[in-house]
Amino acid sequence: MSSCHSKVEDDYFYILDKEYTATQNDKNKIHSLYLKENEKYKETQDLKYLISSKYIEQFLYLEDRSKRISLIYELLRINNKEYKYITTACNFYLALEFQETSPKLSLQFLNRAIYIEDRSEKKLFLPHLYHLKGKWYYSQKNYSQAKLYFKKALNTFSKEDILHIASMYNNFALCDSMMGSLDLSIKQTQYAIQILQKKNNLNEQETAFLYLMKGNLGAYYLNKKEYQLAEKFLTEELEFYKKTDKYILDIARNADELFKLYRITNQQDKEKKLVDLLVTIVPKMTDLSYKIEVCEFLLDYYIKNGDLRGIELQSAELLKMTKKNQEDTVRDLDSVSDILNGYILKNINQEYDYKISEHRKKNVLLVVLVVFVILVCIRTILQIRKKNKLERELLEIQNSILENSKENLEKDIQLQKGKIKNLHLNLNLKIETEKAFLENLKKMKKSKNANPEDTLKDLFFQTNNLLQIDQKNHDFIDESSGETKEFMKKLAERFTFLTESELKLCVYFRLNLSSKEVSLLENIRPGSVRVYKTKLKYKIGLDKETDLSAFLNSIK
Fold it and tell me: Could you tell me the sign of the dihedral formed by the alpha carbons of 233, 239, 243, 244, in that order?
């Protein structure tokens, strides 16, 4: 369901949020604000004021996690996605509540809030959502991704919101520190401190954050082993926290770095003073997890200094607190589980009728879809069968054509072989006839009583035989002229530097004619043919071992 309320009504909750922020977590002021919204609801019975009163009420239980989670879930149920601002805020606060105990669940709430807020016009919550997602990635030790979301938050915060802008640079420094870039961490923190120091009359929250960053700066210098600067900034932070009991938990957070510093620099007197301070603040602390942390510091100190009495007291205290913390954790988990289950059951009851209706619609659509799919399948099967039949018929025709082509090709090959054989025979016959012709000439020269007329007849007959043999050879060449021209064309395109006479010789070499046979056809000496053959191989780029005839026959 999407909200049908105007943006003006969403703005009402934004203004209310600002009023809450102005209380600076003063319970009396928060309670007064709650009563005011509740009175509006009683007077008007307007759902908006019921939602606004519940929204403020959950801030009264910041220290009671189970109660607050219960109120936020109740607020989600009442709102029922009517006001985007409230839906986003509830998902944001649930993400905060579960970020340590259930990171995956926290991320689900956070992503849901970002999805809603990213599509809103004003995006009032978006920078805080990016900030929280950056913290989530930081807790998962994915520091590069954390920096990415801190950068998104920085770009989304208003320029006047210097506290959050300084906070983003402080977060960059924390990420850089974890990635080993201490110099960059120091630079980023110093810049964040300068942002706050430029403002006149810092409020209490801004002042506290300024000293927190100074403590972070001291920790970076401690890691760089610049102990004098580390002590300066860590001490400034501690002295600020000591001014009021409001910052007792911050003293506990700060103590760890100071303990390390005093031990490294062997300042036992300052270490003892810090221990005495922690002993005085433990009874004032309400957060059990921080109490345990402080007791662990003290126990570690007593063990290192061999203080048996201190070890005994802190060990007993630590055991009691650990046991109580476990019981509280189990009770808290049970309570939160009950809240979650209750919320889920309420949603199931609310959505049950809607789901039945939707289920019926889906069944009708499913039947229509099944019928449609069956019809499509039948049509597809028929088309496939028709296509397969056509393909088979086409394949049979192609096979028949191939068989006929194969037979014709084999006949043509046999015919060409016969013609080449006849060419060889004619050439041999020409050689023998020419020899006989020469012998007759020699006899005429030697014989003085020869009859001239008979001799001329004989020579005429032999010359006629030679002409007939040449005519047969030329007939064969003419029959192959189409194929020869095509071959010569391809050869000329591939080897543009070959002359016409060289191309013609390539035709003879392709037929595998001997040098003697080529010389008879071209009326040149066999030796010249061999020279031409060698030159041709060189020009074409063939080595001595490569057969020229085989190469020429490979050209198709």
Answer: positive
Report pTM: 0.57
CATH code assigned at 506: 1.10.10
Residue 544 lies in a domain: yes
What 476-482 contacts at long range (C-beta under 8 Å, 24+ apart), as own/partner pairs, is 476/419, 476/422, 476/423, 479/419, 480/416, 480/419
pLDDT value at 159 more than 60? yes
Q: Is residue 380 in some structural domain?
A: no
Sign of the CA dihedral with 497 first, then 500, 502, and 508 last: positive
- CA distance to 59, 75, 356, per residue, from 349 (Å): 28, 17, 12
Whether the CB-CB separation of 423 and 431 falls below 8 Å is answered with: no
Containing structural domain, residue 545:
480-553
Burial class (CB in 10 A: 0-12, 13-18, 19+), 322: middle
Q: pLDDT tens digits, residue range 278-300? A: 888 888 888 777 788 888 878 88
- 100: which 2 tokens? 């340590």
Q: How many domains does the chain have?
A: 1
Q: What are the start-end ranges of the E strands in 415-551?
A: none
Radius of gyration of the chain (CA): 51
Band of pLDDT at residue 2, cut at 50, 70 and 90: very low
On whether the CB atoms of residues 553 and 508 are closer than 8 A, the answer is no
Which is nearest to 168 in space by CA: 135, 206, 122?
Answer: 135
Q: In this model, does residue 231 exceed pLDDT 90?
A: yes
Instruction: Tell me if 268 is assigned to some domain.
Output: no
Q: Is residue 496 part of a domain?
A: yes
- What is the pLDDT at residue 150? 96
